[in-house]
Write a structure and sequence with these properties.
Layout (H helix, E strand, L loop, with lengths): L63 H37 L5 E9 L15 H9 L3 E11 L17 E13 L10
Antiparallel strand pairs: 1-3, 2-3
Length: 192
């Protein structure tokens, strides 16, 4: 018996095809004849014979709608990625533009710490008041820079006994600290 769909030869008592699983006619109906022509005789010159039956041509289902949906989904996805990249690159520039429009104004202050004590010629003779620095820091001041003011330690009145060429003649007189803070803008009521 031959399969009515593809022409596969099956046992005469089979209920379904062993290749495709299609059921044969019921109630003793006559077996289907081979739907395809008989295979050509085998060649004997040592070359293999071609396949006995040609495969039936199956048309694929129409996927044009699915392709259109996938195409539009790709377009939306690519557009979204491009927009995210543009926004992530533009945000820093826009932020800088708006922040640069309003420059910060500063006020400055100097604070002087004098040298004290009997060891005034030493750099450690300048005592810095941490309490004063903390007080100014709480008010918003921050240190910008500092420098030492120097003075002559041993005045030379024209005599060689005061200063020799080896001995240092300078000592720190005071430490000057420069501070700054943003200017507090006053509101219309005159307060800060």
């Amino acid at each position: 018996m031959f399969c009515p769909k593809f022409g596969k030869e099956n046992d005469d008592n089979a209920l379904k095809c062993t290749q495709c699983g299609a059921f044969f006619a019921e109630d003793g109906a006559p077996a289907a004849k081979a739907p395809f022509p008989a295979p050509p005789p085998a060649q004997t010159n040592g070359t293999p014979s071609p396949a006995p039956f040609a495969s039936p041509v199956m048309t694929p289902p129409d996927n044009s709608e699915l392709k259109k949906e996938l195409s539009s989904l790709r377009k939306v996805l690519i557009t979204g990625i491009v927009l995210m990249v543009i926004v992530s690159l533009a945000v820093p520039f826009v932020t800088r533009f708006f922040n640069a429009a309003k420059p910060v104004k500063y006020e400055y202050k100097t604070l002087t710490f004098d040298s004290t004590g009997s060891s005034a010629a030493s750099y450690s003779s300048i005592k810095i008041s941490e309490a004063k620095l903390n007080e100014l820091g709480a008010e918003g001041w921050e240190v910008v820079s500092s420098y030492l003011e120097m003075e002559t330690a041993f005045p030379n009145f024209g005599s060689d006994e005061y200063v020799t060429g080896i001995r240092s003649n300078m000592r720190p007189q005071s430490l000057v600290v420069i501070l700054k803070r943003p200017v507090q803008e006053k509101n219309d009521q005159g307060g800060k």
